[in-house]
Design goal:
mainly alpha, 9 helices, rod-shaped, 2 domains
């Protein structure tokens, strides 16, 4: 009995292997045979997918161009050498050592920067109580900081809007795909749903592709602004401390 079962197993093993091999060949070679017989398979390119993103994709691409322009502009403008020019700082420190405050005021007014705006607010009040000088410099510093934060805030705006636009495109693409299914008398082919699905996926990807680097850029420039605020505050306090005279009794 056992020998019979072994013979049957041995005799049926190779036909079974042959059937499995045939199925594998058909599965692998089937698409190629279908294509060779005239069933052409169209491969979607990256350009096709971007085009499928539609109007939302165009808006996201425009946002990416605007964001890149802002990053390049801020990379040149929001630097320590621009906000706190070393030459200006050295010149002003020398004039303070010489107690030539009128010349120091003239110098900072001729070279606009974050540092010069703060010092220019305090120097005309050196004959007043120190708290007046300090209040004027604080107000000027807050105004300059607000301007810088407002500038880099556009990067944060783009980083927030881009993924929401991507989500909008995703919803629009899925709606288009479901409309295609609903309006078809028979089950639609996958190729007929490709445009809606491509829009759904591409807009999401494009939105994230814009939002991620914009978020990183905003974080970097925000840190630069904060470091500059702290540095300018320390420099102005150090320079103006000489006018902090104790009240006379």
């Amino acid at each position: 009995m056992n020998s019979m079962i072994a013979n049957v197993t041995r005799n049926t093993r190779w036909p079974l292997v042959g059937i499995l091999a045939l199925l594998f060949v058909v599965a692998v070679a089937g698409p190629a045979l279908a294509q060779s017989e005239g069933a052409t398979v169209t491969k979607r390119t990256l350009g096709d997918n971007i085009a499928a993103a539609g109007t939302v994709g165009v808006v996201i691409m425009l946002l990416s161009v605007a964001g890149l322009s802002l990053v390049i502009t801020f990379a040149m403008q929001i630097r320590r050498d621009i906000l706190v020019p070393p030459e200006l700082l050295g010149h002003v420190e020398g004039l303070f050592e010489e107690e030539d405050y009128d010349q120091a005021l003239e110098v900072v007014e001729q070279q606009p920067s974050f540092l010069s705006s703060v010092l220019a607010a305090g120097l005309p009040r050196i004959d007043r109580p120190y708290h007046d000088i300090e209040a004027s410099m604080e107000e000027a510093g807050e105004q300059e900081a607000a301007v810088l934060h407002q500038k880099i805030g556009y990067l944060s705006l783009i980083a927030s809007v881009a993924p929401m636009l991507g989500l909008l495109g995703t919803v629009m693409g899925m709606v288009a795909a479901f409309d295609k299914i609903a309006s078809s008398a028979t089950s639609p082919k996958p190729a007929e749903l490709a445009d809606g699905i491509s829009q759904a996926l591409m807009t999401t990807m494009m939105g994230l592709t814009v939002a991620i680097p914009m978020s990183v850029a905003y974080f970097i420039f925000r840190n630069r602004v904060m470091n500059s605020i702290i540095e300018v505050s320390n420099i102005a306090t150090e320079l103006m401390d000489r006018f902090d005279h104790p009240p006379e009794h």
